[in-house]
Amino acid sequence: MPLTAKDGGAMSDLWVKKSIEQLRREAAETEHGLRRALGPVALISLGIGAIIGAGIFVIIGLAVQHTGPALVLSVILTGIGCAFAALCYSEFASMIPVAGSAYTYAYATIGEFLAWIIGWDLILEYAVGATTVSIGWSGYMVSFLRTLHVPFPAELARSPWEKTMTVNGVVVHSYFNLPAFFIVALITILLILGIRESAGFNNLVVIVKVGVILLFIIVCAFYVTRSNWTPFLPPNQGTFGEFGWSGILRGAGLMFFAYIGFDAVSTAAQEARNPERDMPIGILGSLGISTLLYLGVVIVMTGVIPFRRLNVPDPLAVAVDATPAHWLSPLVKIGAILGTTAVILVMLLGQTRVFYTMAYDGLLPKAFGTVHPRFRTPYKSTALVGFFVALGGGLIPLRIVGELVSIGTLLAFTIVCGSVLAMRKLHPEISRPFRTPLVWFVAPMGMIISLGQMLGLPLDTWIRLFVWMAIGFVIYFGYSRRHSILRLSSRESSTATPVTKTKI
Question: How many CB atoms lie within 10 A of CB 106?
Answer without folding.
Answer: 29
